[in-house]
Design brief:
2 domains, 409 residues, three-stranded antiparallel beta sheet, four-stranded antiparallel beta sheet, single chain, Chitinase A, domain 3
Length: 409
């Protein structure tokens, strides 16, 4: 199964976890709650200009978590994964955690740098914040992602136990520290005030989600195990068969354009014989790379199947596109088939995919993962942004005039 079918699990690549789930140039991106993605710190979008010492924001109103309905019961099993079960209460708590944590991080950034800089959603560098609000408004999709996380973590825990995997204590501490937006020092030690920050975090965790310290540490252990298992499983010799031998691929000169109309113009000009570099230069598009080419292989994770099919069906000098991708509209001139050894980057990508395929085999096995589906009508929609901080309200947020109003602000 390809990585994008795994709800963007590539985001787990252990960047410092939080709101960087979409590019800064996106206007309609969606913040994906991957395994670990909730911890990526908000992108540092300072322009380098001096910042005044922030003044304290308005005091928050004490939060009371909504009472869940008694039916179905909180201990109802919603999913069985191997020898583990996931209960309705565990799912509800995790959804609330995944909602609360990134909102808390966003509010802290607004307090430190000012809401006019962090919560102005018309600024391209704040696209991640806009995407977060958009994603939280779709509670069904959000709940599905969180459920997927919990299934993956269950698979990881059981595989780690089967292998008697010893977790790296420094990686585990770093996981916990990332929740507080704290980075360990070069020696792996945590700052002196970490305990105080940790206790404050646990207090808020209990109020907003109902989770305990043991619940949080269980998540951190699963994420640490995920990273270690990804390395171990991807090193299996079967992951890269005959990597040193030449592999078939198609050489292309390609580009991705932001609009279909612009991509169609480029394709039309390619078909009458213009070079891609000349076309891109005439359109004022920088970074076209001259007439350089690259090798596309069937294992390329950056291109959807429809694009790969078109490339591999085409003959030498054919022009393909425009074809839609997640990044824009793809256009290419095919040079021809090439046999070359995999590059180090390609080998890394194949190894990652091998691990994701192993993971998919567990999560998608109906005998191993049994989902009762009785959680779809019980996805919490709290906490709302305004519940987490009075800064996360319409009074402090600047939105695009055409944007859909955000739920719960």
């Amino acid at each position: 199964m390809r990585a994008y079918k795994m709800i963007l699990l590539a985001g787990l690549a252990l960047t410092a976890l939080g709101l960087s789930g979409c590019s800064s140039g996106s206007e309609s991106g969606v913040y994906h709650v991957d395994l670990g993605a909730t911890q990526t710190r908000i992108a540092q979008n300072d322009s380098g200009a001096p910042v005044a010492t922030p003044t304290p924001g308005p005091l928050p109103t004490p939060y009371l978590r909504p009472t869940d309905p008694p039916d179905p019961a909180s201990d109802t099993v919603i999913t069985r994964v191997g020898s583990e079960t996931i209960t309705l209460d565990e799912f509800r708590q995790r959804v609330r955690f995944e909602r609360w944590y990134p909102l808390r991080a966003l509010a802290r950034q607004a307090e430190q740098r000012g809401p006019e800089r962090v919560l102005d959603l018309t600024r391209p560098e704040n696209a991640s914040a806009a995407a977060l609000f958009s994603t939280l408004a779709d509670s069904i999709s959000f709940g599905r992602q969180v459920h997927r996380i919990m299934v993956i973590e269950s698979v990881v825990r059981q595989e780690a136990a089967r292998r008697q995997l010893e977790l790296d204590p420094f990686q585990f501490d770093a996981r916990l520290a990332q929740y507080m937006d704290v980075l360990p020092g070069d020696d792996g030690r945590l700052p002196l005030d970490f305990d105080a920050q940790y206790q404050q975090f646990l207090a808020e965790l209990s109020v907003y989600t109902g989770m305990t310290e043991d619940d949080l540490r269980r998540i951190a252990r699963a994420q640490t195990a995920y990273a270690q298992l990804q390395f171990l499983i991807s090193q299996d010799p079967a992951a890269i068969p005959d990597a040193s031998q030449a592999q078939a691929g198609i050489e292309v000169r390609d580009a991705v354009l932001s609009t279909e109309a612009r991509a169609q113009e480029v394709a039309d000009r390619l078909r009458v014989g213009e070079s891609l570099s000349a076309i891109m230069a005439s359109l004022g598009i920088e970074g076209a790379g001259g007439d350089t080419s690259r090798i596309v292989r069937r294992s390329d994770l950056a291109l959807p199947p429809a694009v790969l099919d078109a490339i591999f069906r085409a003959g030498p000098d054919d022009v393909i596109g425009p074809l839609a991708t997640g990044q824009g509209w793809y256009v290419a001139r095919v040079v021809g088939e090439r046999l070359e050894a995999l590059s180090p980057r390609e080998i890394d990508a194949v190894r990652r995919q091998y691990f994701l395929d192993w993971l998919a085999a567990q999560t998608d096995d109906p005998a191993y993962t049994v989902d009762n589906g009785n959680w779809l009508g019980a996805i919490p929609q709290d906490p709302l942004p305004r519940d987490v901080s009075p800064l996360l309200t319409e009074a402090h947020i600047t939105r695009r005039p055409t944007a859909t109003p955000m739920i719960g602000n």
